Amino acid sequence: MWRKRRLFRVAMLSTFAVVVIYYTTSQLRTIQKWRNRRKVGSAPRWEPVVLMNELQYVGTERDEDAFVRHAFNLSSSNLLPSDRALPDTRHTRCHDPSNYGELPLETTSVIVAFHNEARSALLRTVISVLNRTPSDLVEEVILLDDCSDNEEDGALLSSLPKVRVIRNQAREGLVRSRILGALEARGDFLMFLDSHCEVNVGWLEPLLERVTQNPQTVASPVIDVIDMDTFQYRPTSSQLKGGFDWSLHFKWVPLSHKQREQQTNPAEPFLSPAVAGGLFLVSRNWFRMLGMFDSGLHIWGGESLEISLKSWLCGGKVEVVPCSRVGHVFRRRHPYTFPRGNANTYLRNSKRVAEVWLGDHKRFFYEAQPNARMMDAGSLQEQHEVKSQLDCKPFQWYLENIFPELKLPNEENSAFGQLRQGSLCLQSVEESSAIKLAECSESEPSQHSWAFSVHTASIQHRKLCLTVHDRAKCPVLETCTQSYQQKWSRHGRAVVLLSSGQCLESGTTSEVRLSECRRGAVSQQWDFTVELQAQDDHPVNIT
Ligand code: UD2
Ligand code: MN
């Protein structure tokens, strides 16, 4: 009896032990499997399945002149297979996958908007993504057909693994198409590509690493060149950052001396004032928080500077990641129509970006692009709302900290922006010539666009001049006449009416008046946001 019970207990205990061991090892195995699943650099897990007849899809489309329809050599593109080999253009340091650490469990939606793209180029874009990305990192490839003439260009690709095709019934332009793609995306990260790209080996992992480390990062690959004539794939310098000039034209900028000094090797990601093109990875949540792209941007242009400025000014950052390489066919002209006229569309888009993000510095945009002044850019209310909701920084901060290479043009205005005293700013009063002081606010237009010109000795607010009538004490805003009642000078921080030698002074309430200058009086000290020339530091005779 006693022996029986002991045997029973031993049997129970060993069954229990077996169950525990089995459960633990199976759990460990699952964890290991997940770990392996996220190991970087392993062979692609997409098994190419012939789901379509490539030759039949690409067909025999030919141009009389090879460049007419697509602005690149169509014959060269058509001759290449969709899965051609590419030279690995990365720095050797990028070859070691352990450099990228643990990858996220989240997936990426690749979004490709296209309008009348050459089928061979479009197919190569998709196949390069499927073949060169570990399958479990890719949620889907969204092909956003922006109302191409032939619906089948996109539709026939929907049989490829992970590919979803969405078609616009009317032409929306690349910006609204990408927004639509982002709204449809199920992945946690969004990667935007043009429809004539080829991603290179290990392209996504280094981008993912950056965005996972800091989810408020916009991460751009280095964009290699696919020759528009021969389709040869060539490396570009991995040490250039994205920038722009006052016309808001994108340009490449070499890394600053300081950045080069800080860099320990050329494979390291670096901060960039703007994305180096329209190809980048961003977290879907962060992109949505930023209000995505401005949906008022038509057809082509403006969105890459918009997302860059928005990221930097509203708490994020922009990086170029040299270990990530994506080839792109750069062209000399747009191969498609602009329903509203080519130059106008781009200029209008740029005006929207300038109006929302450049603050008082938009004056330089208008000087570089005078035709934009009179253009109707549409409502910007939504963009301003995003800006104030996210409490975005002023452009001056960006100039000082992120893009010091963008120099202010030498112009006659020696100071401009807000005219402030401590936390108070001078502002115009609607439908009146009066001015008053109020708490400074980035988004209050009546506080911006003050300018002091040494040349004309005037203080302007938009088109009006600060004027003090004889025997009046309070300055008002009136049409500029160059009269002595509108002549001012600045002495240190004092603002002096030349004819009377009196100083601009804040009162106890919101009013502003003229009074005798008193050395060091805080109520007579004024600052403009931006000084274009060093001020005359010699103290003048202030009694
Ligand atoms: C550069 C960017 C591009 C975008 C653009 C400015 C690179 C490599 N490319 O363009 O991503 O930022 O500047 O907006 O930096 N498309 C449409 N609908 C249209 C017009 C174009 O879907 O109405 C597609 C087009 O088929 C292409 C993509 O948008 O896939 C970008 O257009 P692009 O290749 O003509 O522009 P690109 O390379 O000059
Ligand atoms: Mn392109």
Structural features:
543 residues; alpha+beta; Spore Coat Polysaccharide Biosynthesis Protein SpsA, Chain A; Helicase, Ruva Protein, domain 3; Trefoil (Acidic Fibroblast Growth Factor, subunit A); 3 domains; 8-stranded antiparallel β-sheet; 5-stranded mixed β-sheet; 14 helices; 24 strands; binds uridine-diphosphate-N-acetylgalactosamine; binds manganese (II) ion
Provide a brief overview of the structure.
This protein has 543 residues and is of the alpha+beta class.
Please tell me about this protein's structure.
There is one protein chain. This protein has helices spanning 2-37, 54-58, 74-79, 119-132, 152-155, 174-184, 204-213, 257-262, 284-289, 303-313, 342-357, 362-368, 381-389, 395-401; strands spanning 108-114, 138-145, 163-167, 189-193, 197-199, 217-226, 233-234, 240-244, 250-254, 270-271, 280-283, 317-329, 413-421, 424-428, 435-439, 450-453, 458-461, 464-467, 476-479, 488-491, 494-497, 502-506, 512-515, 527-531. The strands form five sheets. Strands 13, 14, 15, 16, 17, 18, 19 and 24 form an eight-stranded antiparallel sheet that branches. The chain has a five-stranded mixed sheet with strand order 3-2-1-4-11, with helices on both faces. Strands 5, 6, 7, 10 and 12 form a five-stranded mixed sheet that branches. The chain has three domains: 54-329, Alpha-Beta Complex (Spore Coat Polysaccharide Biosynthesis Protein SpsA, Chain A), CATH 3.90.550.10; 342-401, Helicase, Ruva Protein, domain 3 (Orthogonal Bundle), CATH 1.10.8.460; 415-531, Trefoil (Acidic Fibroblast Growth Factor, subunit A) (Trefoil). By secondary structure, it is of the alpha+beta class. Helices cover 27% and strands 23% of the residues. It contains 14 helices and 24 strands. Its main location: Golgi. It is found in: Golgi apparatus membrane. Belongs to the glycosyltransferase 2 family. GalNAc-T subfamily. This is Polypeptide N-acetylgalactosaminyltransferase. InterPro entries: GalNAc-T, Glyco_trans_2-like, Nucleotide-diphossugar_trans, Ricin_B-like_lectins, Ricin_B_lectin.
